[in-house]
């Protein structure tokens, strides 16, 4: 049954629930005061799941832990009908080669549990790191490109969506001897300020660049990234985040972050595109790399657009490799809504910039004047 949650800043009760039995849609209106309480509950729940999983990992086999994480996703798939139907609709658009409806449902069930598996990746690497490193499959081309950049003293940009074992990607590269500096949201800037530090602390403990372990997204991010690249460092970036740039993504306008395209254009750094795909076994991971070549014309606007389009197309290809392991499906709908708002605002702005012709008195036919032809373009509304 779909549930719509909206926030309002007035009203004495703070919580109002209305239902529609015919459509099966329930609307929950929550005050700003109570929405903060809800996020605190979500924060506490995620932190509890994380700590419980770390405790269970001491004596529960990895296969059972993975089954529990997938089971939570399956439960959410069946409970939340609105999100289920929305996800299936997006999967049909994004995966045209998958014609089997049962396969789409299997992918959707797995996608609901992708976030739990991301948490579990960290815990499994903490408890079974040696076994994972023995079983991991690496892409030799990716490793050679990293080594070549380091040997030449060149900076590099590591690129991947929030896909697969994204939570341990920096740690795995560090343990493989090719560390890089990831960019991350500061915990204080998220609605889950206790859960995020716990995740980040464990990830840093498992492996990171000792000189520059992380760059926090914020006011001084651009300068920090530039300084890192100038001294030959490697920054880990992504694009599947909400932003103000509208580009085509899986066939529809989507508002996403464009920072990666600007940094590539400014630094002219080689791009290392790769992600770690989870395998069949609970400790199996495979590095999958992609070629990312680009050329600059000198026109910054065109170059940024071309690079961002290249990032988007390659991102689609990577996600289609493991669609059930992408945690961005549940944000895609809101990114598309944001894109529509941005396009509507631009359309209104263009309409307001149209010059309004001054009104002139029509000459009287008695004086031999000709009737004034009306302008073909629309008048701007005041």
TrEMBL record:
The keyword Cell inner membrane applies. GO terms for cellular component: plasma membrane. It comes from Candidatus Solincola sediminis. InterPro entries: LipA_acyltrans. Keywords: Acyltransferase, Cell inner membrane, Cell membrane, Membrane, Transferase. It comes from the Bacteria. The keyword Cell membrane applies. Its main location: membrane. GO terms for biological process: glycolipid biosynthetic process. This is Lipid A biosynthesis acyltransferase. It is found in: Cell inner membrane. One of its GO terms (molecular function) is acyltransferase activity. Residues 343-382 are annotated as: Disordered.
């Amino acid at each position: 049954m779909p549930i719509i949650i909206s926030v309002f800043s007035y009203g004495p009760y703070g919580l109002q629930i209305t239902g529609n039995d015919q459509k099966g849609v329930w609307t929950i209106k929550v005050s700003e005061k109570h929405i903060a309480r809800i996020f605190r509950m979500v924060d506490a729940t995620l932190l509890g799941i994380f700590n419980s999983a770390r405790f269970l990992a001491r004596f529960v086999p990895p296969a059972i832990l993975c089954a529990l994480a997938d089971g939570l996703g399956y439960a959410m798939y069946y409970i939340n009908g609105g999100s289920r139907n929305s996800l299936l609709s997006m999967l049909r658009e994004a995966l045209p080669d998958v014609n089997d409806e049962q396969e789409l449902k299997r992918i959707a069930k797995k996608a609901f549990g992708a976030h739990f598996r991301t948490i579990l990746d960290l815990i499994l690497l903490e408890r079974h790191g040696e076994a994972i490193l023995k079983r991991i499959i690496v892409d030799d081309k990716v490793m050679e490109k990293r080594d070549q950049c380091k040997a030449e003293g060149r900076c590099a940009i590591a690129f991947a969506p929030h896909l697969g074992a994204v939570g341990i990607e920096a740690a795995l590269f560090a343990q493989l001897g090719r560390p890089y500096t990831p960019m991350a949201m500061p915990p204080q800037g998220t609605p889950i300020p206790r859960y995020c530090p716990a995740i980040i602390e464990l990830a840093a403990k498992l492996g990171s660049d000792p000189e520059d372990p992380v760059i926090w997204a914020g006011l001084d991010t651009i300068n920090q990234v530039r300084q890192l690249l100038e001294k030959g460092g490697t920054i880990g970036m992504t694009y599947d985040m909400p932003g103000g740039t509208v580009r085509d993504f899986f066939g529809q306008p989507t508002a996403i972050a464009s920072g990666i395209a600007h940094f590539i254009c400014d630094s002219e750094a080689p791009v290392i595109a790769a992600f770690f795909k989870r395998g069949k076994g609970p400790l199996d991971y495979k590095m999958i790399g992609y070629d990312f070549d680009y050329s600059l014309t000198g026109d910054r606007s065109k170059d940024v657009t071309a690079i961002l389009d290249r990032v988007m197309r390659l991102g689609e290809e990577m996600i289609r490799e493991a669609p059930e392991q992408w945690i961005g499906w549940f944000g895609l709908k809101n990114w598309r809504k944001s894109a529509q708002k941005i396009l509507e605002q631009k359309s209104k702005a263009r309409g307001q910039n149209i010059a309004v012709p001054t009104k002139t008195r029509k000459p009287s036919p008695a004086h031999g004047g000709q009737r004034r032809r009306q302008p073909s373009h629309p008048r701007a509304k005041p």
